[in-house]
Specification:
Blueprint lengths: L4 H20 L4 H21 L11 H8 L7 H17 L9 H11 L7 H27 L3
Helix pairs in contact: 1-2, 2-3, 2-6, 4-6, 5-6
Length: about 150
């Protein structure tokens, strides 16, 4: 059974709801960060399906953003802002994040912070996930306001 644009938009809203509930319950930041990216991907795919039935199996958020035509509906300033949010998200979120353990992510962060005090890795881990969640919400807000009509 194929997904419709409505299916993707609904999934995007439901994943956002899930993320918000995880945050309120102070549950897994890994799951929240992963679902934040999935919500963005669903919103983009919903916009793509409004004008084509072509399905892109890749999880390249920047590529999906271009295909979604959302950028076409934005002023130059907002286009630049959304692109910067998406670049920020793409640096941290990846589809295989669902396989990450806390230890794996700590190793990634420690590698990025090479030479920095090891005590900072714990707070950097929380900031890493929160940045994904916050950036995803900004993208979703813009995408939902300026999606393909």
């Amino acid at each position: 059974m194929k997904f419709t644009a409505h299916d993707y938009f609904t999934a995007s809203k439901q994943r956002t709801f899930d993320v918000d509930n995880f945050a309120v319950l102070n549950k897994s930041l890994i799951a929240s960060a992963y679902l934040s990216g999935v919500a963005v991907e669903c919103m983009l795919r919903g916009n793509i399906l409004k004008y084509t039935k072509e399905f892109d199996e890749k999880h390249d958020l920047n590529g999906l953003l271009v295909k979604s035509k959302i950028l076409d509906n934005l002023t130059p300033g907002n286009r630049q802002l959304l692109a910067s949010y998406m670049n920020k998200l793409n640096r941290k979120w990846e589809n295989n994040m669902r396989y990450h353990s806390v230890e794996h992510t700590k190793r990634m962060i420690a590698h990025e912070l090479a030479g920095v005090n090891r005590k900072r890795v714990g707070s950097a881990l929380i900031n890493y996930y929160k940045e994904i969640i916050d950036t995803s919400k900004k993208i979703l807000d813009m995408g939902n306001k300026h999606g393909v009509a």
